[in-house]
Amino acid sequence: MKTSIPDWRIFDHAMERYGALPEYLWERTPDAAVLRRKDNRKWFALLMTVEASKLRIDSDIKVRIINVKCSPQMTGSLLMKEGYYPAYHMNKNSWISILLDGTVPEDEVIAAVDASYSMTV
Q: Which whole number is the average pLDDT over 26-41?
């Protein structure tokens, strides 16, 4: 059985490892949170809720996702795995969207956050 990954698990990791706190930037999407590097203020993760159809999932439900930066070399292989999608609302060559519904294990999501942090130097 899949268990959703709660935002706080990702936020706790980002705070403990990088000192990054979630920022809620948009009134229209109050549950959308950005994680930024402290040194250069670049985003390394964006958590939000989107309609599944925006990811080309044949459903009318809303899903929780995280967008992370990804090397173009890794993007192709990750997109072949379940739970990984071309980035919603970001550059699809260097960002991916990951479902947070438990399809992708939490340790893989955390590893993707860490890789994204490293890539936003």
A: 96
**Structural domain boundaries in the chain:** 7-119
pLDDT band of residue 11 (cuts 50, 70, 90) is very high
Domain 7-119 has CATH 3.90.1150.30: yes
Nearest to 108 by CA among 10, 7, 23, 1: 10
Q: 43 vs 2, 28, 107, 119, 121, CA distance in Å?
A: 28, 19, 20, 10, 10
CB distance 28 to 51 below 8 Å: no
Rounded distance, CA 45 to CA 118, Å?
11
Q: How confident is the model at residue 1 (pLDDT cuts 50, 70, 90)?
A: low
Q: Which helix (H) or strand (E) holds 89?
A: none
What is the structure's pLDDT at 3? 86
